[in-house]
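Minutes, project check-in
Item: structure for the 764-residue chain
Input as provided by the requester:
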Amino acid sequence: PQRIYYLSLEFYMGRTLQNTMVNLGLQNACDEAIYQLGLDVEELEEIEEDAGLGNGGLGRLAACFLDSMATLGLAAYGYGIRYEFGIFNQKIVDGWQVEEADDWLRYGNPWEKARPEYMLPVHFYGRVDHTPEGVKWIDTQVVLAMPYDTPVPGYKNNTVNTMRLWSAKAPNDFNLQEFNVGDYIEAVLDRNLAENISRVLYPNDNFFEGKELRLKQEYFVVAATLQDIIRRFKSSKFGCRDPVRTCFETFPDKVAIQLNDTHPALSIPELMRILVDVEKVDWDKAWEITKRTCAYTNHTVLPEALERWPVSMFEKLLPRHLEIIYALNQMHLDRVAALYPGDIDRLRRMSVIEEGDCKRINMAHLCVIGSHAVNGVARIHSDIVKNSVFKDFYELEPEKFQNKTNGITPRRWLLLCNPGLADVIAEKIGEGFITDLSQLKKLLDFINNETFIRDVAKVKQENKMKFAAYLEEQYKVKINPSSMFDVQVKRIHEYKRQLLNCLHAITLYNRIRSDPSKSFVPRTIMIGGKAAPGYHMAKMIIKLITSIGEVINNDPYVGDRLKVIFLENYRVSLAEKVIPAADLSQQISTAGTEASGTGNMKFMVNGALTIGTMDGANVEMAEEAGEENLFIFGMRVEDVEALDRQGYNAQEYYEHLPELRQAIDQISSGFFSPRDPGCFRDVVNMLMHHDRFKVFADYEAYIKCQGQVDKLFMDPREWTKKVIRNIACSGKFSSDRTIMEYAREIWGVEPSATKIPPPNLPRD
């Protein structure tokens, strides 16, 4: 069959033990066996470290995709880097984020198997020699790539796929070549320089930092993986008489490479280099093979996130790849010039090479010209990709552009993290929904069923009690389990607008203070997420959240009607605890900035209601459940564009909205930072004078919408009916559906529902 290669610099896997038991159908047996040994399985599960080899959405999507590809019986491989240190652990000290190294391999990793027999060389630096026999890349430095395999089990189908992560090893003669005669000790110590390539995950989410070590990581995973892919292609017996296949005609029919964002974009010039320089395939033929093999997923439209590497860095590190990129770009621009004669500006806009003080390579443009399919990750995002980000490319080849709305695996994000809800659902509609989430639609028949309403509400209350107990045990914070659990967990970023959430918390606080005898709907506002270590504003936002909490949580007038909690060290294993306990899910990015979001889907399937903007997959969630069953507020993409044309003036909102002005003045005056009154001047200055994400423009609509949330929460029966409606309409957001669309519309393979016979049964 065709093999699928999912290339990603991030796989945010979390813990593996419980997921393995669930997918093998062994959970109950294991629980029972461990109980009989006098142990508690949950205590055991809490000992496992998260595999935190990702930053956020993009890395977690890759992990969900692996689960779905195995469950759908695809011959798929995940390829990435085995970082020695994953995403940092976050500590909060005096209200500030402090990072510590995530030494996740300290006690070993029982799920991985080293495969030294498949170790491969990766070349860097050197120079290019053009000889009559062809092009040679010579005098390179070699780093070895050691593969580590982790099994990826499908759900109860006896399929086990592989995630192969590469680790960097110095060759034994490293720095001990002829020119380095003297210092043997120094040379051995220098092995670290090579091995640093797989040392640490870059902790940036939606931000490009043009560091040479990062470019090395990107080429390292690509070069090792492509050698592996070609080795497997050549040794395959399928439809091939030769014992070793030498003809690459059939390569795209046997191999599909999916690029998870532009991070593995070097796959395109590297495949060209192997085909042309090593395998001696004709250039045009090689280009056709490359394009038919590769497909590219775009994950963001934020300009600061786009990878634009300096040509000078390529010249030094990957000289042959630079030559190939120049040649591909020339071919591409010749075609554009022929179709649009005299349109010089179009050539400039569409070039892979950006001219200027520092010449740069636009990796997104390279991916678009080198792939047969380009997709966005939610319908609204794919439309923006076609109509703005890659508009010129869309006009050139509209058939290339597709949408593949993201999804989440229902195994981890329902069965594993919320067994109570899964049981209540299975009681009513059977277990088919686990591998066909669209079956949740059957729950619409039970929307007025009193016992079902009661059962769903009871499961939510139990999850809340359990999470409250966890918070008290781990962080010594007491919360009111009958309050509304209002949750915003995601990476801290200005575009995600945690600041809007802060302004609502302050507004709520001021309303309680101005009339303490009035009855308020009690809320526990929980905000969690990591800030990139170099992202000053994000770190200030965390300090603001903790400072607001300090004031509100210790004000006797407030009591337990309002609490603001910062959830420390948000990660996959914490998401599995907090999401099933949430009542309200906050998805409040400025319209047009969040490509899709996947946390939004996790909350929906776990029985929280969503307050959100018409952004990313929220749009499709509202379409599936009915807009009246989400709390939708604020500007749409069109409104944001109109406001951009008109000019956004924060001062205007500040002057016309008294509650907003009061909140900003409190932040500004040091009300929340009495020991350092000027603490938040940067935040206030940004909000007032250069807020790209227009927080104030949505403030009034947001506060009003939160009033609607309060009103519904006071009627638990109506609230729970909306919850059931949301769960029933969440089926579209399974990653199984997403992967079926990739398989059929990009990779050209048909998923199979057939269960492989178990190894103890004889095969046909």
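Outcome recorded: The longest helix spans residues 450-475.
No further action items on this chain.
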